[in-house]
Amino acid sequence: MARRRVAILISGRGSNMTALIEAAKAKDYPAEIVLVISNIAGAGGLAKASDAGIEIATVESKPFGKDREAFERKLHDVLVAHNIELVCLAGFLRLLTPWFVKQWEGRMLNIHPALLPSYRGLHTHERALADGVKIHGATVHFVVPEMDSGPIVMQGAVAVHDDDTPDTLALRVLGVEHRIYPDALRLVASGGTRLENGSCKTGNAGSDTALIVPAIT
Ligand code: GAR
Hints:
32% of the residues lie in helices and 23% in strands. The chain is an alpha/beta fold. It binds glycinamide ribonucleotide.
């Protein structure tokens, strides 16, 4: 089967982008990363993508000011010009309009550093620590107009440690992000997901292993 053509949208360092690029090197991976677009000129991830031999583009959002849709029309044109089939947001720090989301409905994924629907928005690790939760994690989901919502494709959980700071917790969650984003894209690109009444079915039972924190030994 032809590999699905994927674009990754970034605003920053692009570590999730790198995880996707690495995974897509596997011969049996059902998607190829054909384009990386940043809305910020000089974003760190652009050089990494270019070094990996991926075509890069910058569509700056700043000149468009409050006219989000005008920015998105330009972005959309670039995606269409490259025959993109699936879009992965990877640290893309722009709120998207319903118009853009509609163009990519069921074909756009995002990764969020929390176990949604908990901790939508910013500062997820700080807020999880303030609440004293024992399990935290990351979520890959289809993008819908509401921020950090939409059918969940895959989640990964980590233990929260007593002595965690937002930085140490972020690092542990990031390790999970780098595992689940490539796996979630594999699932979606290979046709292994089905959207049903606003939720995503994966036909996959997953593991029976429970993550229990703290573990009493
Ligand atoms: C990641 O932790 C991602 O989950 C988060 O930004 C970081 C980007 O890092 N995204 C969000 O908070 C979106 N709501 P990266 O550029 O190294 O992939």
